[in-house]
Amino acid sequence: MHKKKGDQSVLAGEMILTFYKTGVPRQIKTDAEFDVSAALDGILSEADRGKVYGEYIFNRIIIEAWHKSAIASLRINKEDFADLIERHGWHYDEREHCWLRGQKLEGTLFSAVS
Fold this sequence. Notes:
By secondary structure, the chain is of the alpha+beta class. The protein has helices spanning 36-45, 54-67, 78-87, and strands at 51-52, 90-93, 98-101.
């Protein structure tokens, strides 16, 4: 269960992180910058079926930013995130609830003509 505050909404489901002690203290750099567009380009180029779910994209972005110690610089809202995916040549299919590569088709062969 989770709460939404104000006009914020949820981009993805849940992510569970497990922390463990290694016995060796580490100094973590937290001022790194993260290029969301470059990371997104890499993630989308791996989608060989031309279909990818938003939760997968979002979770991969979070993990990559975390690995680069740049999680604090990851600031993007849902609209900007969707716009960035569209600029990479993908569109959201509301019927399938996923992102598809290529241009959105306005009609099909069997669409009714008015």
